Every structure is written in structure tokens, then in C-alpha cells.
Amino acid sequence: MKKDQEYKEIFLAESLENFEEINRLLTVLEKQPSEKNTLHALFRITHTLKGNAAGMGFTAIAELAHVLEDLFGEVRDGNIVMDRQVFEPVFRGVDVLGALINAVRDNADVKYKGIKTKLEVIIRTKGVVKSEEGRAAVGEAAPEVMADTEATPAVDEREADETEETRIAFSDLVQVPVRKLDNLLNLVGELIIEKDRILAQAASHPRGTNEYARLSRISADLQYSVMDVRMVQVGFLFNKFHRVVRDAAVVENKNVTLKLEGTDTEIDRNVLQVISDSLIHLIRNAIGHGVESAEERKRLGKPSAGVITLRAMGETDSVVIEITDDGKGLDYEKIKCKALSKGLITQDEADRMPVDELGLLIFEPGFSTADQVTAISGRGVGMDVVKKTLDSIGAMIKVDSRPGAGTTVRLTLPASMAVKSCLLFEMQKDVYAIPLSFTEAVISVYKANIHKAAGGLIANHLGKNIAVVFLKDVFDQDLEKHIGTNLLQKTFDEIHPEAKLEIVVVTFNNRTVGFVVDKLLQQKEIVEKPLMKPVDRVKFIGGVTILGSGNVCLVLNIPFILQFIFGLYVQGRSAKGITLN
């Protein structure tokens, strides 16, 4: 029911805007009757209004708009001359149209049949009801015309004149530039930070923070209300891909249709804007690599037209978007051979690597399994850009493919980029935050249960060996002096043999690592601010926030940190190498 009300409000806003534009254009046309552009604009607007009203089920508006559209069409074609005798009923008809639009909101009963019939008479008689100068007024009309008008039902003038009282109508919707919403959300973020500061100071007071419970509730409500304003339906973006699919299919000489599901799922507009280019790459890639030609599909017993399905689903604090094709699926052996030839993986890793990790290799720079270069595929560019873009907002990527049945790329996106649920921890007396979207578990492990392995550390978690890394070692930027040593074992060798370690287990794109921290603090919702110059190039940090104590808290860039850790082995920066997961 909520969605129906939203659609009605959008219809009312657009219709009132159309109504005002019709009035403006009519006044212009009255002064310049020969202005063709004005006539064309009136015809287009009434046509649009008719279609929108019919789609929403508002029959009266659709019928009256249809008659006005026909009349403007006749004027455009030169069959009717717009003079005072025609302008008066047209203006009256537009007034009734405005009353019908307002009646959608007010549920008022508006009579419109009379003016509708009068306009139909003008159309049917091809404007015989003209000015006195043309001597073609109704009383002096030709006999055949009179015969036609006599068959027309009598027009109730009282019915048509009921709406002559001029009223100014206002829409319930206001268009606001996105930059103003961003500024408002920024101010709300400052309010949240100030609230936390006040609560931190009040914590030591005998009455505690109960005195500020109302402040907490109101600030939280304000925060989520502003965030809700920035939410849009993914259909806003999805509907733009019909042309993308059509153009890509023409280039590849394939027959492909697009199917949309879950278009009413809501997501932050800024997230949608960031991922738009990535979705274009993924859809074009599915058409170029996945969907077979019509001849090959017929030979395989498939329908000649391939289907690309764009699906959206809402989950807790995230939105899942899936791009599915019914093509040939991924050739994992071909991917494995290509990765080996490019040195992305070793033979030992290729033998042990599960298919879900093999599938993610298509996002590596310069990687392509296409045998021929086309306008869409074969160059090995695009998919690595997709991954970097999605990593920048903390999106998860999962590839699921079945040979001969198709491929699904699953993107798990944050529902909002403004507020993040984070886990706060302490390291070397500084406070850091890890977004909960990457956090799988928090565990305590004794040093005796952590083992050295090929230049790294491993521990057992839920029956599976995971890599363990001391964040102190990762943040040590003087890497050159550690060449030839086991960088990720440095702090491990220095701690007491019976030490108990606090570990945050994080997961991103099938890579799981346990980060050893000094002290776990609390779970907290934060308003993250981007890094400003000159520290915006510090890739280990994704953003900052200010705690209630007034101290700055750095938010870790988990995708980049994991990429850095796993890249140590690939780049050979450790003499013995590091084998993780």
C-alpha cells in the first residue's frame, strides 16, 4: 500500500507540472496562434498526461486529456483554427483537467462530461464553431454541418462552468538537488558525532546517559529519515539497460532479451551511481562471453534468444544484485590455463583452487579467455576496473557458473554509504574500525594454537585453516629492510609463548584472514568521512570518523589490505613466499 501511495504522489507531481505547462503554453499560443513549436509541445504534453493517467487507472483524466490531444492534433494539421470561439472551451477544459488532477488527492467529485462533449463537437465539426468573422457560427452553419451537430448530445453549460473559479494547486513532492541532500546528511553526521561526545561526558555523571535518551532517539530518527530520502528504487537504473543489451547484442550479432526482477528494491542513490558503469561492463561481458549465437543455441536445443536477467534483492544492511545469463557458462580449465600462462597462480594453487575462486580470476587485469578480439570482449580490460570500483564501496563479488547452463555474478552492495556498522578495536593505543559487513567472527586464540606455514601464520577456525596476520606487521611500511625475512611472522616471534590473542576474522571475495588486534572495544554505528588531501592516498585507510571522546578513528580499507597481503606472495616480496588459504 505504501508503494501505491508513492506512485500516486509521483503521478500528482508530474501531472500538476504538466497542467501548469499547458496553461503557460496556451497563453503563449493565444498571443501567437501560428507558433508551431507551441502546438507541438501542447500535443506532446497532453499525450504524456493521457498515457500516465491511463497507466494509473485514472480514466476521467485520461479521457479529457485524450480529447485535448485530438483537438491540438487537428489544429496542428490545419483542420481547426484557434480563435476566441475555440480558445474559451479549451481553457475551460484545461481548468476541468486541473480539477480532475486535484481530485485524485482530494477524492472530490468533478463533472467533466459536459466540457468533454463540447470539445468533441469542435473536433467533429472541424472547427465550424468559429469566429463571427468567418460567418460560420452555429446559427449560420451549413445544413450538413447542422445535421451533424443536432445529433450531438446537448452540452450542460452549468456542468462545464462549475470549475471556473481559479485555484492554485501545489504538489506534495519537492525536487531537491542531490548535493543539498548530501550536505544535509553531512550536517546530520556532525550532529551524531556531537551527540556521542555529550553521551561520553555524561557517562561519568551519576544520572548517566538516561537524561539524553530523547536526544539519542531524535538524532537517530533524523539520521535515518535523511538516509531514506536518498534511497531510490533500483528500477531507476535497471530500466536504462534495455538499450545497453540491444546495442551489445547487435554488435555481437546475437539475439538477446533483458528480464528485470526486484526493480522496487531500494538502495542509496550514491551507491547506484557508483555501480552503474560496472553493471554495463558485466552485462556486455555476459553477452560477449556467455550467450551463444542463435545458430549454436538451436544446435544445443536452447531457444534462439538468450536471456540476461537483472535481479535485485534486499537483505539486512545490504542489497544483492545478480546478473544472470543462460549461456555456455565459464570454462574453468581454460581460465586455469590462462591464469597459469600469465603467472597469476602456480600449478600447485591451480590444483587446489576451488571453482568459486577460479571464477574470480576473470576480474584480474589483462585477463580474457576470448580467442578473438571484438568490440566488446577479448582485450582483457573492463572487468578489473569493475572489481576496483566495487572494492571501493566494499561490495562483495561471487561468481557461480554451470557449464552449458549459464553464469551468475552476485554483487552484495551496502544499502547506504553514509552510515556503517563497525567493530572498534585498539592497536598500539590507537582506535580503529572494521566495517561489520566484512567481519565474520571475533575469536580468542592462544599463541600455541597458531602455527607458522610458508612465511605466514595459520590457525584453525570452525574446522578450517585460516591465515592469521598481525596488523602491526601489515602497517609496517619499511618493507625493504624485511626483504629476505618473514614479514608476517615478525610480531609473532616477539610475543610471550602463553599469550592469548584477540582475532577479528574478516572475509572478502572468498578470502578469509584473521587480524590480530591489541584489544576489542565495541560495536558501533559510525558516520564515515572520506580522507582529505594530503592523506587521501593512504590505501590502508578507507575513511575516518570522530568518536565521542573527540579522538579520530580510522576505518580500515579491508579490500585493499587483503589485496596487499595476498599480493606479497604473488609479487615475491618475501623470500620464502606466503601461502594463504
UniProtKB/TrEMBL annotation:
UniProt catalytic activity: ATP + protein L-histidine = ADP + protein N-phospho-L-histidine
Q: What class of enzyme is it?
A: transferase
Q: Which GO terms describe its molecular function?
A: ATP binding; phosphorelay sensor kinase activity
Return the protein name.
Chemotaxis protein CheA
Cited InterPro entries: Bact_Chemotaxis_CheA, CheA-like_dim, CheA-like_homodim_sf, CheW-like_dom_sf, CheW-lke_dom, HATPase_C_sf, HATPase_dom, His_kinase_dom
Q: What does this protein do?
A: Involved in the transmission of sensory signals from the chemoreceptors to the flagellar motors. CheA is autophosphorylated; it can transfer its phosphate group to either CheB or CheY.
- Domain of life, per lineage: Bacteria
Q: Which UniProt keywords are present, listed alphabetically?
A: ATP-binding, Chemotaxis, Kinase, Membrane, Nucleotide-binding, Phosphoprotein, Transferase, Transmembrane, Transmembrane helix, Two-component regulatory system
Q: Residue limits of the CheW-like domain?
A: 419-567
User: Could you tell me which PANTHER family the record lists for this protein?
Assistant: CHEMOTAXIS PROTEIN CHEA, SENSOR HISTIDINE KINASE CHEA
TM region positions: 540-570
Where's the HPt domain? 1-104
Quote a single Gene Ontology cellular component term.
cytoplasm
Where does the Histidine kinase domain start and stop, copy by copy? 169-417
Organism encoding this protein:
Dawidia cretensis
Chain coiled-coil ranges: none
Give the EC number(s) listed in the UniProt record: 2.7.13.3
Q: Which CDD domains match?
A: HPT
Gene3D superfamilies linked to this entry: Histidine kinase CheA-like, homodimeric domain, Histidine kinase-like ATPase, C-terminal domain, HPT domain, SH3 Domains
Q: Which GO terms describe its biological process?
A: chemotaxis
